[in-house]
């Protein structure tokens, strides 16, 4: 009799109750074990491995235990997947089709212990599709109900959770003022109305000692409040100034509703600040992505073949995305021009403009006063440095427009961008005489990388300085090794999760990083890894255990 190796898969959508000694996952497994035992006469044999996903929705296939199970199926070590109900495996018809395709390719199958049907017959397959359709329908209806409830509650002015703004504390389904933080918020609004500049407001806030709301990681239980607070950065102040909660409003998508909580800032003051911010940024909050905006490098950008990159755009779901595209890709010009650079360039406009503006400022700062770039009086040196520092800190479209006006020509080539700055405009930017700038120093190269994987793209324009190590990825790798050593010492995943004050799901996501090849880890520590190798990418793309296979995958990024 042929032996049929059976693997039991269990899943629970929420983490509620998983800490109990006997939870839903145990109940599912118990029922499946009994079913496999009843099929002993058919040659069914239960494999000892546990494949349990707790706290993960059935609407996705990105589940650690399911991925591990499908890997074992593809390797031929599992013949039959046993589940309590079909919706434990998946609630999506599209995902189910992918799983069935993999199972058929591996000559494996699955069975539900509470839903009896034979998928070898047309009626059985119809029954299965109906069950999955209802499972997907139930998930989507539940999500719609939650979204509708949140929308209706916010229309009534109720606080529906999330990060509590500085100056407030939760009070049931509303908020009450916490006076210490409220004073800080009022001071920030007064500073902005006085200076009308986010940069000046940030500097003044730091000078008078304003501190942000304490933020601590879940595992930092011993950190004091003073250790967790830091001076405000510009983005934090911008968020506070544009948050309608402070004016007694509740935001839902692009609409504001009257809230049931007290306001910290008078409505007229808040409206005045929004008007100033909108005029200063050159656009109304929330409309930037939909508005095409000017192409700041139009007529200045060329590729290595001498072909001009022309502005273009694409629209998707009502949003407009700008690009710079080699002319030959748009006009389909001569084969001779096409042969000089087979594909040409199609670069996202906003990242290109922002990063090139930062590269220009980085070049000017590196060649700043006291170098051959600028020959200015001593009394002007401090002012020029401050101007460059302000431009480096300011990331708005106004700053990018001012900086990129200095670019006379930029040539994109594999690995670098050659930039030529206009002497007159650069002098105007720095508020110095044109004759004080050395024309030879207005030409520079900056590193350039562009990677595209499917619909994702990554553009990096360097400033000639060494890349900074990815602190998040390094920390995750270190934590993975710590969890792995704990496992080898006999600790369970549940014990590790409790000690780290994290969920078991998070531990399972991170621990795979303990098996990265040493060469890959070394390159991450030295900030020499491919630009696409990030903690997020590794979380979405589990690597095989074979180190050579890992190297091949990483080198293709």
Report on the architecture of this protein.
The chain is an alpha/beta fold and 557 residues long. The chain has four domains: 4-142, Resolvase, N-terminal catalytic domain (Rossmann fold); 168-281, Alpha-Beta Complex (Hect, E3 ligase catalytic domain fold), CATH 3.90.1750; 301-461, no CATH class; 471-555, no CATH class. It has helices at residues 24-38, 64-74, 86-89, 93-105, 122-155, 179-195, 198-207, 225-228, 234-241, 267-281, 327-331, 335-340, 349-366, 378-393, 397-404, 423-430, 471-488, 493-500, 504-511, 518-525, 535-540, 547-555, and strands at 4-12, 44-46, 51-54, 80-83, 109-112, 168-171, 174-177, 249-252, 255-258, 301-303, 309-316, 319-326, 346-348, 407-413, 415-421, 443-453, 456-461. The strands form five sheets. Strands 1, 2, 3, 4 and 5 form a five-stranded parallel sheet that branches. A five-stranded mixed sheet has the order 10-14-15-16-17. The longest helix is centred in the first third of the chain and has 34 residues, at 122-155. It is globular, with a radius of gyration of 29 Å. The relative contact order is 0.06.
């Amino acid at each position: 009799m042929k032996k049929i190796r059976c693997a039991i898969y269990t899943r629970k959508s929420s983490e509620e109750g998983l800490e109990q000694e006997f939870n839903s996952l145990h109940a599912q497994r118990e029922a499946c074990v009994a079913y496999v035992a009843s099929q002993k006469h058919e040659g069914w044999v239960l494999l000892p491995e546990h494949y349990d996903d707790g706290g993960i929705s059935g609407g996705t296939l990105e589940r650690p235990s399911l991925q591990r199970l499908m890997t074992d199926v593809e390797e031929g070590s599992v013949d039959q997947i046993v589940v309590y109900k079909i919706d434990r495996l998946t609630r999506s018809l599209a995902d189910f089709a992918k799983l069935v395709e993999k199972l058929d390719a591996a000559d494996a199958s699955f069975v539900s212990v509470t839903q009896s049907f034979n998928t070898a017959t047309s009626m059985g397959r119809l029954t299965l599709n109906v069950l999955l359709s209802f499972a997907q329908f139930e998930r989507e209806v539940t999500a719609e109900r939650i979204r509708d409830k949140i929308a209706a509650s916010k229309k009534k002015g109720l606080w529906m959770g999330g990060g509590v703004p500085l100056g407030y504390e939760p009070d049931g389904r509303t908020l009450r003022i916490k006076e210490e933080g409220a004073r800080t918020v009022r001071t920030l609004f007064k500073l902005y109305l006085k200076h009308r500049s986010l940069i000046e407001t940030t500097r003044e806030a730091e000078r008078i000692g304003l501190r942000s709301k304490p933020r601590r990681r879940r595992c930092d239980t011993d950190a004091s409040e003073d250790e967790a607070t830091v001076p405000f950065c510009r983005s934090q102040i911008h968020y506070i100034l544009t948050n309608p909660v402070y004016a007694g409003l509740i935001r839902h998508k692009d609409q504001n509703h009257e809230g049931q909580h007290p306001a910290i800032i008078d409505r007229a003051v808040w409206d005045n600040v929004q008007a100033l911010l909108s005029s200063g940024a050159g656009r109304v909050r929330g409309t930037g992505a939909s508005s095409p905006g000017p192409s700041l490098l139009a007529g200045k950008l060329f590729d290595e073949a001498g072909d001009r990159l022309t502005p273009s755009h694409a629209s998707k779901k009502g949003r407009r995305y700008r690009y710079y595209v080699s002319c030959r890709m748009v006009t389909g010009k001569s084969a001779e021009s096409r042969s000089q650079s087979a594909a040409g360039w199609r670069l996202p406009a906003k990242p290109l403009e922002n990063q090139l503006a930062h590269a220009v400022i980085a070049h000017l700062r590196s060649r700043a006063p006291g170098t051959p770039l600028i020959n200015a009086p001593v009394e002007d040196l401090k002012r020029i440095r401050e101007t460059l520092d302000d431009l480096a800190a300011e990331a708005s479209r106004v700053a990018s427009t001012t900086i990129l006006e200095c670019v006379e020509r930029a040539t994109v080539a594999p690995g670098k961008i050659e930039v030529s700055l206009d002497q007159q405009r650069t002098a105007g930017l720095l508020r110095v005489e044109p004759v004080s700038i050395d024309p030879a120093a207005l030409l520079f190269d900056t590193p350039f990388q562009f990677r595209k994987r499917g619909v994702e793209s990554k553009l990096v324009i360097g400033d000639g300085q060494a890349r900074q190590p990815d602190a998040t990825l390094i920390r995750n790798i270190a934590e993975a090794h710590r969890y792995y050593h704990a496992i080898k010492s006999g600790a369970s995943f549940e014990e590790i999760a409790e000690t780290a004050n994290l969920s078991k799901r998070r531990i399972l996501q991170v621990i795979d990083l303990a098996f990265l090849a040493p060469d890959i880890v070394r390159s991450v520590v030295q900030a020499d890894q491919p630009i696409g190798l990030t903690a997020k990418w590794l979380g979405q793309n589990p690597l095989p255990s074979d180190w050579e296979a890992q190297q091949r995958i990483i080198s293709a990024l």
